[in-house]
């Protein structure tokens, strides 16, 4: 049985381009982001992949990425579940601030800790650990059972909500997760074993 799970971070957003902390704010894709989403769809199609269900967040940039991928696959109208459990990590008081301005104000090191550490939360926001605690139950209850039944599942979400999932799938640790980056619009193609561990992983980068 092909237990297929594809994770893809949304294409470039307007606030990615402007270098702003985004979190639960809701900017749309840039033109480049639209291209990245379409390219992701074409790469999946070139592999001969298609899906039985798609999951995305409650945020526009992920939803539109999902729609564009499905268009490229000729699967417009596929059953798609939108849930805020898959939203980006909430950046709290940092949301809307420029990342370079934040570095100038609080220092490179502190900003890196807020962005990439496992358990340090930005003021008013979620740490990656908090994000794992939100995303993982949703994955285990809603997504994983479908994959294990042999449904082919696409998840279009966000840098940090997907880092939370990849951390679990790839068995990364609080020490190794800080160096793990996800590029916009690059699908991660996982095949799972019956016990939900990873059988294979393919990164569909250029
Ligand atoms: O701003 C954000 O919400 C995220 C993703 O774009 O940024 P970072 O890579 O700094 O976690």
UniProtKB/TrEMBL annotation:
Subunit annotation: Homodimer.
Which protein family is named in the record?
Belongs to the phosphoglycerate mutase family. BPG-dependent PGAM subfamily.
Keyword Metal-binding appears in the UniProt entry: no
Q: Where does substrate bind?
A: 9-16, 22-23, 61, 88-91, 99, 115-116, 159-160
- Residue numbers marked as site, Transition state stabilizer: 158
Q: Which PANTHER family match?
A: PHOSPHOGLYCERATE MUTASE
What is the name listed in the Swiss-Prot or TrEMBL entry for this protein? 2,3-bisphosphoglycerate-dependent phosphoglycerate mutase
- What is the gene called? gpmA
Which superkingdom does the taxonomy of this entry point to?
Answer: Bacteria
- Tell me which EC number(s) this protein carries: 5.4.2.11
Q: Which reaction does it catalyse?
A: (2R)-2-phosphoglycerate = (2R)-3-phosphoglycerate
- Tell me which species this is from: Alsobacter ponti
Supply the PROSITE patterns for this chain.
Answer: PG_MUTASE
Q: Which Pfam families match?
A: His_Phos_1
The active site is formed by 10 (tele-phosphohistidine intermediate), 88 (proton donor/acceptor)
> What InterPro entries does this protein map onto?
His_Pase_superF_clade-1, His_PPase_superfam, PG/BPGM_mutase_AS, Phosphogly_mut1
What pathway does this protein act in?
Carbohydrate degradation; glycolysis; pyruvate from D-glyceraldehyde 3-phosphate: step 3/5
Gene Ontology MF, one:
phosphoglycerate mutase activity
Question: What keywords tag this UniProt record?
Answer: Gluconeogenesis, Glycolysis, Isomerase
Query: SMART domains from the entry?
Result: PGAM
Biological role stated in the UniProt entry? Catalyzes the interconversion of 2-phosphoglycerate and 3-phosphoglycerate.
